[in-house]
Each structure stands twice: as C-alpha cells, then as structure tokens.
Specification:
alpha+beta; Regulator of V-ATPase in vacuolar membrane protein; elongated; Methylamine Dehydrogenase, Chain H; 4-stranded antiparallel β-sheet; single chain
C-alpha cells in the first residue's frame, strides 16, 4: 500500500491521542463513529467501527496498559489489546467493557491515570477502575459547571478540571489509595482570564514516580507552570513560573492583528530521544557550526528540561526551556529562550484568512526516533511532520529536515459510497451516503504518491450521478430534476451553475462528450441518456483563466448563462436500456479528430436487459445545436439482466450475471468471450474497473465486499487451450478495516484507490507476490523484492521470442517449415556458445524481414545489407542442415540451460517441439505439409499426454490429416507410436477413423482394432470385440472366437444365437430383444453390437451417441458398416455432428463434416463464418461456449487459403463469401496473432494475403453462374472439376442437401489421393 487516508478526524479537543506502548508507537483518532489506530504516519493497524451510528466525541490512549477509551455522547467504551503483534502481525484491539454516564449539554472528556484508572468528566467527575469487567466506579463528584477538560495525573494522585470559559482551575488531591472508598480534597488555581487547556507533565518512564507539574494555557497568552506546594496547606499547587507567548513572538509586520498563539510542551522524555537521534545523524559529519547547535542542545537535554514551543502560525517559532521544574526551585531564573526562528516551514495556516482551530501534539519514539508533530486542523485533517530536533531549534540552518511533511490524514466522516475519476486519472471525487463529496487531486511522484484533499462540497440534494471535467477543476452533479456545476479551481468551492431539466424516463448516466476542437477547452458538453432512449445535451462555458475576458464575463453574467440546454436527442436502436455508463479510459490517449466514425473515442457503453452490449461515440455540432451518435461496435452476449457492466476504450466489456456470482469478459470488437469465472454465491461481485498498461494491455479490477482481485489479460494460447485472463494480485482490506468496500477506481499510472468506510486506501503498482502464475512467468523483481504490476502484465503479453513454443507451433501451422528450421539452427548456434548470464536475443539475430517477405524478396534484402549475425548464420546454413541429430543436441542443451524468456513449463514444451521437429524431419521428403503438421502435433500430444487432460487430438489436427495426401505414412506412424497395438481408445485419441479417406484403409484399420480389442486381456474375451466384427459384417470370425471361449458362461447361448441366419426377420427380432435386454443391464457396447446384428445401424449409432457418449465410435461403425455414401452417415453428420459444431462453435468439425457430405463449398465457408449461420438451427443465446475465444484459431485462415483453390466446388464456396467478410476474417486473424504474441505472423498474413479476383458478372458459365476458375490469379487448370454440369445447379441450401446428388455425367472424380498426387499437391 502506498498511502492511507484513515478518515476525517472529528473537530473535537480530544479527537487525537497517542502513546508509546509495548515497544511501539500507537496513535488513535476518531473519525465519524470509527476509531483509526495507526503506528506511524503511513501504517494503519486497525479500524474499529461502532454499531452505534452516533459520532464519537473523545478518545484517550493508556500508555501503560495499551487500552483505548472512547465515548459517544453518554456511552463510554473501553477497548483492550488482544494481541501484541509478536507473531509478526500487527496488534489488534477488542471491546472490553462499556458503561453509561449522565447525559449533558457538553461533550465528555476522558483521561487515564495509573493502574488502569479512567477519569470521565462531564456534569460530574467519575473515576472508574477498568481492571475488572464491567468497570466499577470508585468515586463521583458533581461539578458546578460542566467540565471542558478533566485530567488525571499520571500517578492518579491529582485531578485538574476546568469548565467552559472558566478562569478557575479546580485541583483535586487524592487522600487515599487502595481502599474501596476514594476521597479527594480540592482547591482552586485562579487565572486572570479563561483557561483554554491544561496538561500534566509526562514522566520519563511509565512506571517512574515524579513530582506532579501542571501546565495551564490561558486566553491572556501566558503559559503557567504549577508545582506541588510545600507544607500541608489547602493550596495543593503553587505557581512555579510562566512564559509570555505574545512577548515571545512579536508580530512587527502586522501590529493591528490579534496575537493568536499556539503552544505545546516538548517533554523531557521526547527531548532526550530526539537529541539522541540528532547526535547519531550528525555524528558522521561533525562540522564546527553544527557542533555549536548540537552542543547547546545536548547541554539543555542533559539538565532536567522541558521545552515550551510557541508558533504564530505565520512562520514564526520561539522555544523556551523550563529547567528543573520542581517545588524546590522557582522559575524566574530557570525560563530561558532557546531559539527564535522565522521560517516558511512553520507557516501551517497557509493562505487561509480566518484563524482555524488547530490542536498540536508532539511525540518522539523511545528507540531514538525523530521528533513528530501532529497538527490537528478542525476543518477535517491532521498533518504529520517529522523533524530533526537540532535543525528544528537552530535558527541558522536551512535544512529540509527541519519540518518534513510525512502524511496528511483525512477522508470522510461517513462511509464512502461512490468514487468517480476524471479521464486522465489525476483527480477523483468520492461521496458518502449523506451527500458529502470530496474532490481529491492525485499527484504521482517517484517517492510519494499522494491523494490530496482539494475541496469538500456539501450538497443537500440527492446526487444521482457525478462527473469531473478539466482535470477535476469542475464537478458536475446530476440530481433528479436538475444539474449543477461546481467550480473547484480554488480550495473554496463555488456553485457555478444550476439548471432544471425535464426528460421522459430515468436518467442513467452523465457523460462528457468529446470536444469539437482539441484546443478549445473553455466549452464542455455534458449529456445524459434515460431508460426511454431519450437524452439531453448541455453546453457549459467554463471560466478558465487562460482566456481572462471570457472568465470574467462568465462570472459576471452569473449562473444561468454559463450552462444551457443545447439539444435533446433520441437513441433509436439502443434497445431496452438497463444502463448507460461512461467508458473507462484505457490504452493510448485519444486523439480529437472531429470525425464521427468507428475510430473516434468511445464515450459510453450501454447494455440492455437482454444482454446486448454496445459502445457509442458522439459528435456535437454547436452551430446547428445537434448531437450525432454512432454505435462503434456491439454484441449480443446472451447474459440476461446483467447486474454490473463495465466497458473500456479498448472495446473490452466485463459483465456480471443477475446473481452477481459469475463474471464474463468479452472482446466486443472481436465478438468473442475471453473469460468466464463463477465465484459462487458467497462471493458477490460489487464493482468492475478497467485500466491498461502504457502499451495497451488491459487490467480489470474485480471488487468483492472485502477484497479486490486484479485480472490481467494473457496471450491467447490455442495449442494448450490456456486461459485468456488470469488473476495476478489480490488486495484484501480485512487487515485494516472491518467495513466492506464501498467503491474503488483506477487513477493514473496504475494506482488503485479503494474506499471502505470513512477511509481511502491508495495502492500503487508495486506489490509482493507469492502467486504461482507471476513467479512461474519469471518476472524480474525490484531490489526490495516487490514486482511492478505493469511489468508483470507486459511479461504475460506482448510479442513472443521467436523460439517460444507457441510461436514455433504457429509457424508450423502456417506452413513456414523452412523458417522453423532456420530458427532451430539459430537456437542451436546461440545455445552452443551460451555462457550463463548472457542475454539471449528474442530474435536470435535473424533478419525480421524473413518472417514476412516472400522468398525472393527477403534474400534480396539480406543481400544488400548483410549484418554480421545474418552472414554468420548463412555461413552456418551452408555447412549445416537441420536434422534429427541437431534436434537432439538442442534438447540436450535445453535441459542444462535456463532460458530467461521462458517459464519452466514453456521450456519443457520447447523441448517437445524440437524433438518432434526432429522426428518429422526424417520423413520430410515423403510427406506433404498437412501430413507433417499432423505428425508433429500428434507426436507432441503423445509427449504431453501425462501433463495435460486432453483425451484426443483436436479436430484441427484431424483436418490436417484428412486433407493430407500421405495418409499411409501417417497410419504407419500412428501404429508405431502405439507399438503396433491400436486399441479403440488409442484409435479415438489419434482420430484415425475420422481422417482416413480410403474406405478400404478404414476397414483394414478397423479390423486391426477388432483383433487388438480381442487380445487386450489375458482371458481373450469375444464380448470386447463383438461390436467391431459385427460392424465389419464378419459374424463368422466372431463365431470362431466364441468357440474358443469355453471359460465364458455365456458361450453356449451366444454360439447358439449366432448360428442362425439374421437375414430372417425372426432372428433379427431375437437380436433386438437381446440388445434391449443388454441396454437395461447397462452393457452398452455389447447392446450396440446386437443392434448391428439385427441390421439396425441407426439404433447402434444412437447407443454410441447417447449412452456411450462416443461420437467417433458412432461415425466409425457407420463408415465401416455402410460406407461413406450411406444414408445413416449423412443423417449422423447433418443432425448430430453439425449440431455439435454449431453449439460449440467448432469450425474445424463443421468443415470436416461438410467435406464428408461432399459439400466442399460449405466446407470452405464453414472455416470463415460462424457455423450456426450456415445451418437452419438458430444460435442458442445462452450458449456461451460457442462464443469463447477458443473457437477462433488463426490456423483456420491457413486451411481456408489452402482448400478454397483445390476444386471448383471449393472455389464456388469461396466465391459465396463476401469480400468484406473475407477482409474482416483476415484482419480478425491478424489481431489474433497479435494477441497471441505472434505479431510477425500477423504482419505476414496481412502483407501476403491473396484475395480472389472478383470478375464482372458478364462471364457466366456452368448454368448461369460465374466460372469459379476466373477468380484465381494463377492457372486454373490445376483445379479439380467436381461440379455437376447440369443446367439446374442445386441452389445454395442452408444445410447439406438431403437429396442424393445425381452422378456427374461428364466427370467422375477418382480417388482423391491418386488425383491430388498427380497434380503435385
């Protein structure tokens, strides 16, 4: 935590109390109905809130026991320390007892004595013993007039009390100790005028018994010192000496002014500790001048001396030493002037003209701490200064250590409800339930980040919404029927304008609209939007001093002229508005362009009850008195009646559901869900706030009642399906306050301010972390062990080094195999000569042009400008080609060397990728690119299987293998990977029956699986393989296997059944009955086998889908049982597979299914457009999975560009894609690459993408359609003709056609493998 504002101190004489207890300083003050307990100016130990709503009147701290007494009206409460903080935590206090005293017109006073005795004064004096619970009253005495102050001496032997405006101090002397009844006798100390305050001298140690000395401060500007009297006369104390405060500080400048003086006594104990510290500090550089001041200070401190320090509040300070104060000496000779100093440091009144009430306390910690002074201003703040006592009393020095400001304690006097920032984050306004609003200025400095109270605006009316303009110099309040503007340029605020309004609906927000011209800051436009989609714009002329004529004119014309209603407007297509909010500023600062387009700065984010989120920008036309609104992006999120929404200028939106338990984060521009987290019901989300790092990476603060979690965006990770957001820091306020958080907001430079109760806590970017995510990311930390929030977020985002596994994986997917080999050779070269502590270059010395230039261009670039490393690399290239041995060498080095840019997990993944690349390199010559992609990721999947929970290869990898021309090599590779025994589980994992295109190969592999399933157990159970053999229609093989299973009790019955002829309807029925019986026994696979025996393929498929929940098994048995052109497979693909694809948003699965259905045009379109748009099934609004960012994948664009030019059907499908859709798809994927940290690949994509040529509509062919071959920019003869040449080409059906297409009359497509081979694909 950087700073704490512990609450506004009450304007009471006993509002602040301090003491040194148990080896630590404790400062307590009252704020509203709370106690703030601090240990030093910046450290808060605890806040105690009373159940009582009444404000506290007084507080007192007992140094010997550590107890705290506080009172609210007639109730006195005593708190005792629970723990001393020995276990490393801070001490905590809890209520010990409370008691009532008589009511009265004045406030109560409290004072502690010895042995935990508490004196309470009001209309009477009560002496309580608090050692017992409840506290017992020893003594009570009525007073003639209510006490203003009543102080018990430190040894409890005297009480001094004085009434309001009283010139007689009543001194009570205690006559007996220890017995039940306590007796006092009293006398008077007469003063010429009213006494303002009294205090007893502090002992050097808490246990020490000293002669009691009383100081009285009187209106006649004289401090009188009273000591014990000799003899046993009635007069208990007598005058020892006095200090004339007015004479001590003469105001020559202003003789006419009344001489107000402030004085405090610097006790002997504090003086000794402070002097000891000064000697330590000065000991290093002992110059003679400084020595003189120090020697003098030492001579004073060594004699039994107290110092009376006097201020005039305007820069003058005088100090007087009171030596040997005791009954034996008289003070005439013993009062010496120590110093008279005139310095701006002592001007604590500042510019204020009225003379406010200021109470001054001083303390110095025993373990040689510096002198601290607390100035309690009754206008609601306590200023804490630290001082070196030698400089403080030295008139000749100009040292900065004379009065160093340490902190200003302020805040609210009631719980904070709302905090609103201005756009730059340099100012904020916080308000309470009761309408008290405080404007804060935020000054971020390298040493101290402060939140300074600038104005307190008392607003009686209900405040509906607030906004700040022009750096917090003006505050706008929206009330129910009026809008008011306050000028807060000066510390004294003025109401600038007030204007009534009338608009249908409930006002939802107050927005600051963008300026018309960037340089014109004297005019502001404020808007509100209501629930009825109506709105008003006001024009506000600000009295800014940069244009003095306008300023004076505006002030002269009064309140009406500077605020006027400019126009009303209607947001027609905004929908059923639930809320409209200003957008949180994030990213780069906005540029005022004056254009109304999607690049203009967003002003507001709206959301409807149906969950539609929309970003808006606006432009004001002053000449025509109009405002234009434009929706810059919108999205249906499907989150119904969201309880909270927050949007940032980066087009990110966070939504919380109706029950406030589930948070979702959306990228509205990309129309995708990026994060979903259910915090369960005991964690209700209360607040959402956005900010970003300087390079535009978003951070979201999610507020709960007692903690705030900071979520950072992460790189997209499609290979590991990692999360796109992660919590990186948790801030809890429970250690400091029991009050729930009211609101929080970001200020500039990553500072977060939290309002809880009366207090504000300011957190900066530095934090200590034990978080696994942050430590595993190897984020560098500072010298003090803390980490920088922005540095952590930048580490989790931004461009990846080119040897990062994600970058290499994406390079492989986009077909840059040559580049991957170059990177791995460069990595080998770098690691070969790596010495520990060396920096590894993110780009390994490669020329960046290689990543986005086509082959010829990049060599030319390199040729013209060969840097040393590039030429060095090319030399290596000539000698060295990437082989499996080099891959092994790199792996070996990676096991020894820690790469600083990678986390441990990422380095393991890099090892995997390098090893896989080596394995694939061996097969490179005989394999196409799609095969290489599958092989590499399959091998990687096998290596990572133990570490991740992925059960089978993703549909992306299945697509690569499906479109590969070297499937025989892949089949062989998969078989070897499983050591030649492919069981169904392994077959499903590799997806082999999804990607094999040759029907014969499918059956061959299926039979191998059947054999392996039979032989997998030692018993060799025919039940395990029944489904497989019956799918292959090999009943006889199954019969043979049953013959050998003599151990199986089902053998005889099964053999008898299988011996029958199932072409006969009777035996089919018997098989069906068996199937249903097996279903009831939950033997699902065996039941499916009997359905096949009864020739009920569809029922077997249903069992696979609904009971076994295995989609691949359903597809595999269908392909084997009735081939690839059967009706069951078509139904399965259309009704099940495509439905699942639409539901999950899985474009890979949809493309595969359409290709299987021979709808290749749709297969191409499915890659580029959301699946549900191609089907008749509408998208279900509550299905968030289909909107998740993982449904996107930049590899889609790779497959799309590859497939669209293979056949005429795919070309026709591509021609149905609108150019704008394709353009947006490419840009969208470039943005995905950027978010993944693969910026170079995104640049390559937008630089080298080839759009289809759109020909004029005159060249029609093939039944009135455009000849798709004309769309290509290369020779069309390489395209396979697979369109039926019939004049009636089937229309573009939404789903795959249900009618079987007639066989083509001209061209019969041969087997895909042989054909594509002959064309070199």
């Amino acid at each position: 935590m950087k700073a704490v504002l512990p609450g506004q101190p009450e304007a009471r004489l006993q509002a602040v109390s301090t003491g040194y207890w148990d080896g630590r300083r404790v400062i307590v003050y009252i704020t509203g109905n709370a106690l703030a307990i601090l240990s030093d100016p910046e450290t808060i130990l605890q806040t105690i809130y009373d159940d009582d709503e009444r404000n506290l009147d007084a507080v007192s701290f007992d140094e010997s026991s550590g107890k705290i007494a506080a009172c609210a009206d007639a109730t006195v409460r005593v708190y005792r320390p629970l723990s001393r903080g020995d276990d490393g935590g801070s001490p905590k206090w809890a209520l010990q007892t409370s008691f009532e005293i008589d009511h009265g017109p004045t406030t109560t006073t409290l004072s502690w004595g010895s042995s935990e005795e508490l004196l309470v004064g009001r209309c009477s004096l009560w002496l309580y013993d608090t050692t017992s619970t409840p506290a017992s009253c020893h003594w009570q005495e009525g007073l003639a007039s209510p006490a203003k102050a009543a102080n018990l001496s430190y040894d409890s032997s005297y009480i001094a009390s004085v009434g309001h405006h009283d010139r007689l101090v009543k001194v009570w002397r205690r006559l007996n100790f220890g017995s039940e009844e306590v007796h006092f006798e009293f006398g008077y100390l007469p003063h010429p005028r009213a006494v303002t305050s009294i205090q007893w001298r502090q002992p050097f140690h808490v246990e020490q018994t000293i002669e009691n000395v009383l100081y009285t401060f009187c209106v006649d500007n004289i401090v009188r010192v009273w000591t014990g009297a000799d003899g046993s006369g009635c007069q208990s104390l007598r005058l020892w000496g006095e200090v004339d405060l007015a004479a001590a500080l003469r105001n020559e400048d202003e003789p006419g002014r009344q001489n107000l003086r402030w004085a405090f006594i610097l006790g002997q104990r504090d003086l000794a500790s402070a002097t000891e510290r000064a000697v330590q500090e000065r000991g290093a550089d002992d110059q003679e001048k400084e020595d003189v001041a120090l020697q003098y200070l030492l001579s004073i401190a060594n004699r039994d001396t107290e110092i009376c320090v006097i201020f005039d509040g305007r820069g003058g300070m005088s100090s007087w030493a009171l030596e040997n104060v005791s009954s034996k000496s008289r003070g005439v000779k013993n009062v010496d002037n120590v110093a008279y100093v005139k310095s701006r440091d002592f001007d604590f009144l500042g510019t204020s003209t009225d003379e406010p009430h200021v109470e001054i306390l001083s303390y110095c910690n025993k373990n040689a701490g510096n002198l601290h002074m607390l100035f309690h201003h009754f206008d609601g703040k306590v200023e804490v200064f630290q001082s070196s006592v030698a400089d403080f009393l030295d008139p000749t020095t100009h040292a900065k250590t004379r009065m160093m400001p340490r902190a200003t304690w302020s805040g609210h006097s009631a719980p904070v409800k709302k905090i609103v920032r201005n756009f730059s984050g340099r100012a904020a306004v916080s308000r309470t339930e009761k309408g008290e609003s405080i404007v804060w200025r935020h000054a971020a400095g390298p040493l101290r980040t402060r939140l300074l109270r600038h104005n307190v605006i008392p607003e009686e009316r209900h405040i509906h919404r607030i906004c700040l303009i022009r750096g917090g110099r003006f505050v706008v309040f929206l009330h129910h029927e009026s809008i008011s503007v306050w000028d807060c340029t000066l510390p004294t605020h003025t109401l600038l304008a007030d204007c009534k309004y009338d608009v249908p609906g409930k006002p939802l927000c107050v927005l600051v609209l963008p300026r018309e011209r960037a340089e014109d800051d004297s005019v502001a436009h404020i808007a509100t939007v209501t629930s009825e989609q109506q709105g008003i714009v006001w024009e506000l002329h600000l009295p800014l001093d940069n244009n003095n004529d306008n300023a004076t004119k505006a002030r002269a014309n009064g309140r009406e002229s500077c605020l006027r209603e400019l126009c009303t407007f209607q947001l027609d297509d905004a929908g059923d508005l639930a809320y409209v909010l200003p957008v949180d500023p994030a990213g780069s600062p906005p540029v005022i362009s004056g254009f109304l387009d999607v690049f203009a700065r967003d002003v507001a984010v709206s959301y409807t009850y149906g969950g539609r989120v929309e970003f808006w920008t606006a432009r004001v036309g002053r000449e025509r008195s109009t405002v234009e609104w434009l929706s810059t992006s919108s999205m249906e999120t499907g989150v119904l009646e969201p309880a909270l929404v927050s949007g940032s200028t980066m087009k990110k939106a966070a939504l919380v559901n109706k029950s406030r338990s589930e948070l979702t984060i959306w990228d509205i521009r990309g129309a995708r869900l990026e994060y979903k987290q259910d915090f369960e019901n005991h964690n209700t989300v209360q607040d959402l706030d956005w900010t970003s790092t300087p390079d535009s990476q978003s951070i979201l603060a999610v507020g709960f009642p007692y903690r705030i979690i900071l979520l950072s965006q992460m790189r997209f990770d499609y290979l590991n399906k990692g999360p796109a957001w992660a919590p990186i820091r948790e801030i809890s306020t429970r250690d400091f306050t029991p009050h729930p958080i009211g609101d929080s907001t970001w200020l500039s430079d990553g500072n977060l301010v939290i309002g809880a109760g009366n207090q504000l806590f300011l957190y900066d970017r530095a934090f200590e972390t034990t978080d696994r995510l942050v430590s595993s990311a190897r984020v560098p930390h500072r010298k003090d062990g803390t980490r920088d929030l922005f540095a952590v977020v930048q580490r989790l985002n931004g461009p990846l080094p080119i040897f990062h596994p994600q970058f290499l994986g994406q390079c492989i997917l986009s077909g840059k195999h040559v580049l991957v080999r170059r990177i791995l050779l460069a990595l080998n070269h770098t690691l070969k000569y790596h010495v520990e502590g060396d920096v590894i270059d993110d780009y390994l010395g490669l020329d960046l042009a290689e990543f986005y230039m086509s082959g010829t261009a990049s060599t030319a670039v390199n040729g013209n400008d060969p840097s040393y490393l590039v030429s060095q690399m090319s030399l290596d290239d000539n000698d060295e080609v990437f082989t499996e041995d080099i891959a092994m060498a790199i792996c070996e080095k990676l096991q020894r060397i820690t790469v600083p840019q990678l986390s441990g997990h990422e380095q393991i993944q890099l090892l995997d990728i390098v090893e896989c690349a080596g394995v694939v390199e061996k097969q490179r010559r005989s394999m196409d690119e799609n095969g290489a992609r599958f092989m590499l990721f399959f091998r990687q999947h096998a290596l990572r299987k133990g570490r991740t929970n992925e059960i089978h290869m993703s549909w992306r990898e299945i697509n690569w293998a499906y479109h590969s021309t070297s499937q025989d090599i892949l089949t062989d590779f998969v078989s070897r990977q499983y050591h030649g025994t492919i069981l169904w589980e392994k077959a499903r994992e590799s997806g082999i029956f999804m990607w094999l295109t040759d029907e014969t190969a499918v059956k061959t592999q299926f039979e191998i699986v059947a054999r392996n399933e039979y032989a997998k157990s030692e018993m060799k159970n025919p039940v395990d393989c029944s489904l497989f053999y019956l799918a292959l229609r090999k009943k006889t093989v199954l019969q043979g296997l049953w013959r050998m299973a003599s151990w199986n009790k089902e053998q005889v019955a099964t053999q008898r059944l299988l011996a029958n002829n199932f072409a006969d309807a009777k035996w089919r029925t018997a098989a069906l009955k068996n199937a249903y019986a097996l279903l009831s026994k939950r033997r699902f696979e065996y039941a499916a086998a009997f359905f096949l025996l009864a020739d009920h393929l569809q029922d077997a498929v249903n069992v696979c889908l609904n009971q076994i929940k295995d989609l691949q098994l359903a597809i595999a048995i269908t392909r084997v049982y009735e081939g690839d052109n059967g009706p069951t497979l078509r139904r399965l693909l259309e009704n099940e597979v495509l439905a699942i694809a639409a539901q999950e948003g899985n474009r890979w699965l949809a493309s595969w299914a359409f290709w299987m259905l021979k709808r290749r045009d749709m297969a191409v379109r499915a890659l580029i457009t959301p699946v549900y748009t191609l089907l008749e099934t509408p998208a279900s609004p509550d299905n968030l999975k289909a909107k998740l960012f993982l449904t996107d994948d930049p590899a889609l664009v790779v497959l799309y560009s590859q497939l669209r030019q293979t056949t005429l059907q795919t070309l026709r499908g591509a021609s149905k894609v609108m150019p704008r859709t394709e353009w947006e798809f490419v840009l969208h994927n470039a943005r995905l690459y950027d978010r993944m940290g693969c910026d170079l690949l995104g640049l390559d994509l937008v630089r080298n993408w080839e759009f289809l040529r759109r020909t004029p509509s005159t060249t029609l062919d093939l039944g009135g359609e455009i000849d798709p071959r004309k769309l290509l920019r290369r020779r069309g003869s390489l395209v396979v003709q697979d369109l039926p040449v019939s004049p009636v080409a089937p229309g573009d059906m939404k789903t795959g056609g249900h009618a079987v297409k007639p066989p083509p009359s001209v061209f019969e497509e041969p087997d895909a493998n042989s054909l594509l081979d002959s064309f070199g694909f």
